[in-house]
Specification:
Layout lengths: L14 H19 L7 H8 L3 H8 L2 H12 L12 H16 L2 H14 L3 H18 L1 H8 L9 H19 L5 H16 L7
Organism: Streptomyces cacaoi
Protein name: TetR family transcriptional regulator
GO molecular function: DNA-binding transcription factor activity; transcription cis-regulatory region binding
Length: 203
Amino acid sequence: MTQPRPHGSVRPGGRTARTRIAVLAAVLEELEHDEFARLTVERIARRSGVHAATIRRRWQTVEGVLCDLLAERSRTTIPVPDTGAFRSDLRALAESIAAFHGVPRNEHLLSSVVAAAARDPRADTVLREAFGERLRYVSTLVQRAVERGELPPETDGEEVIAALGAPLYYRLLIVRRPLDDQLVHTAAEAAYHAAVAGVFTRA
């Protein structure tokens, strides 16, 4: 079976690129109202104006489209704060995560890709790579804190960010309840105090 072309391999502005933009936008619009279980190639085709056969030829399945969408949005979603202080950086990051997932289409996209990952190896790979890339990128705020002398030199930045995000994604994906200000506060404070105490230093 032919695999989908990697992002960026098509001619910018060409017909294939326009098709991809239309399909990914259609999926986001569908996820505004419904979750993954109700998403079908036919619904994507109707909303995007792209023939269902074209969608199946390029992405094969709904899971394939979700993989592409997650890979695209993981590059452009939540900014890395730079407030000048580690504690406020963590708080700002937690607030941004909560704000992003407070939008129904974003919340549905995350839960949809997690569901897809359980049955499609490509979705599983994209999910792990997207979160891994995000952890590495956002951990730069921890490195800045180390350079300012706020944290021990051997602090593992990825572990700090994972600890910040864990209670937020547990609430979203396991408990299935909205993120609130209290959780944002406790997640940021817990990660901050643990990092300052040296909990995340590399052995």
